[in-house]
Amino acid sequence: TRAASIRSAMARHAGPRLPLIVKNLIPTLSGVFDSQRITTTAFFAELLNSNVVNDLILLETMMDNMTGRQKDACMLVRMLALRGLGNIASGSPEKVRKHGAKLLASMVNGMDDKDDPHNLVALEAMSSLSKLLDHVEERDVQSMLLHIAIRIRPFFDSEQPDLRQSSIVLFGNLTKFSERNCEVFFEQILNGLVTLLLHLQDPKPEVVKACKFALRMCGPNMGCEGLCDMFLNHLQEDRSLHYGEFMNNVCKHLMQSYPEMLNRLILTNLFYFKSNWVDIRAAAPMFIGFLVLHVDEDHCQQVDLDQLISGE
């Protein structure tokens, strides 16, 4: 917050002096004291939120310095550096397209950070990537699309609600780029579908909102008009949802369009029988019940009754 206030004041009142200030601060980014590197990185990150750095031809210099902080020994510096790179989407959105490949690579590296026990760097990378996706070239996303989708999938069930929310929102945003890799990305949608539908019962409203968004975004890519319409009509942000009725109709469409998916959908639901969240634990057997109710006899053989009865 302090860095944001300083940045705002600097952008308003110290414009012509900013290049010299930035030049004098750059050496502290590689200094020995964590506190100095954290403070300078935080200030630069907030400065990148303003178009003044673009006006003063500072963007490339500051972006390069933020990129250089990705291997900093201090986790907070790495996190703030990603925040700064993500802030370019607000401060200089027209420049994101030019530097898209570099910015995307930084976010992917952040998600793969090996020294991030609480996933703070990964969280910042996912949040920043969602901001950048509105401004990057499709070709720059294509090469990383599958890797990102697979990488964020485990966060859907994280104990940390902000990780659940950010990863699910990012997944929804990724679907905009799935057209050229339709079949490949469709597989990722199927991998996440059960989880997204069950987390409509998540205890955190912000996660439910994220799931509604992601499912609305996934709908047009699923090749089922009825399902797409259901997601668009029933999963509006502030609309209340009659979950049981909704899931009954969703399962009807799923079994009409993808009956061969029955066993796969059941197996994923079985995993949630042991969920820590009681409403999700309750939703999983209901989901299975509706799937079995609507599948035709020809596909019933897919169901492993012993496995289903044991709930494992």
From TrEMBL:
Domain Maestro/Maestro-like HEAT-repeats: 64-310
Alphabetized InterPro entries for the sequence: ARM-like (IPR011989), ARM-type_fold (IPR016024), HEAT_Maestro (IPR055406), Maestro_heat-like_prot (IPR045206)
GO cellular component, one term: cytoplasm
SUPFAM superfamilies membership: ARM repeat
Family annotation (Gene3D superfamilies): Leucine-rich Repeat Variant (1.25.10.10)
Pfam families in UniProt: HEAT_MROH2B_C
Protein name: MROH1 protein
Organism placement in taxonomy: Eukaryota, Metazoa, Chordata, Craniata, Vertebrata
